[in-house]
Design goal:
Elements lengths: L3 H10 L1 E4 L5 H17 L14 H4 L2 H4 L5 E5 L18 E6 L1 H4 L1 H10 L1 H7 L5 E9 L9 E4 L7 E2 L4 E6 L10 E3 L10 E5 L5 E5 L11 E3 L6 E5 L4 E3 L10 E8 L3 E2 L10
Antiparallel strand pairs: 1-12, 2-3, 3-4, 4-14, 5-13, 6-15, 7-12, 7-14, 8-11, 8-13, 9-10
């Protein structure tokens, strides 16, 4: 559970760093489970490449129907222009998502033991719903950049309620693409929404055309096991991983079931 000082810090900065949240055994369970799942995964069943830089292009049916599934998404640089892999399969995955917290027994056991919904309640969510999970790999040498964004862009409720819980499975440093956050930026309006388009596929709806403030981002270099809690309106970013060390993380997003979850959100789940 969070202290009052931690809650105040989150409300002030838009994020909170909690060290030693996951122990070594919990991290190893998740990392080893992901390795086994990738080993069993047949790449021929998916050619979906995940990139936040060209979200519309990556929004194929495999991606859009993953809200209540466990699916695998490739790093953009893992596949060349002819469709051939440039790296071994284990090093090709950008992320696994988006429902392993509910569907896979190993992920489910670890996540349930952390009681993240209780922390969500402390931070103002009346009826927490664990909506989306992602195992993020940030692969060595090819891990892609994630441009400045707000999580509520992708998981929109009225009123807004999204909170992200990002857990470092490995050390996150500036060399391998640690998180960077605009401290206090959660007080900015939501810039845009990523949603289903009436014509099919997805689109961005611009809500606020003003540019991002010219604020320096704070580096969130953290040790393995650290939890970073992110307000849904907090602008945050991570650079490419050009190092030879991976930066694995697991994240889960809460929304408030008492709030209206938009029918045209890209992620729809029956779970």
């Amino acid at each position: 559970m969070l202290s009052q000082n931690q809650i105040s810090s989150f409300n002030r900065d838009g994020y909170l760093v909690v060290e030693d949240f996951l122990d070594k055994k919990q991290r190893e369970l998740i990392i080893n489970r992901a390795q086994d799942m990738i080993e069993d995964f047949d790449p021929a069943t998916s050619s979906s490449i995940f990139t936040t830089n060209e979200q519309e292009r990556a929004s194929d049916e495999y991606f859009l129907k993953s809200g209540d599934q466990i699916r695998f998404f490739f790093e953009e640089k893992a596949i060349d222009s002819k469709g051939n892999f440039t790296v071994p399969k284990q090093q090709s995955i950008n992320k696994i998502g988006h429902a392993q917290h509910a569907l896979d027994p190993v992920y489910k056991r670890v996540i349930n033991s952390l009681d993240i919904p209780s922390m969500g309640k402390q931070l103002g969510i009346k009826k927490p719903r664990q909506l989306q999970s992602m195992h993020i790999f940030k692969q060595p040498n090819i891990g892609g950049e994630v441009r400045l964004h707000q999580d509520s862009t992708f998981l929109y409720t009225t009123p807004m309620s999204c909170i992200g819980f990002w857990m470092a499975l490995e050390d996150a440093t500036i060399e391998n693409g640690c998180l960077q956050a605009m401290t206090g930026g959660h007080k900015l309006p939501l810039k845009k929404r990523f949603k289903l388009a009436q014509s099919g596929g997805t689109e961005f709806e611009v809500l606020d055309e003003s540019p991002w403030p010219n604020h320096q981002l704070d580096l969130l270099e953290v040790k393995a096991g650290t939890l970073v809690i992110l307000h849904g309106q907090l602008p945050h970013y991570s650079a490419e991983n050009t190092s030879n060390k991976s930066r694995q993380a697991f994240s889960i997003h809460l929304v408030d079931s008492n709030c209206h979850y938009a029918e045209d959100n890209w992620l729809q789940s029956e779970i």
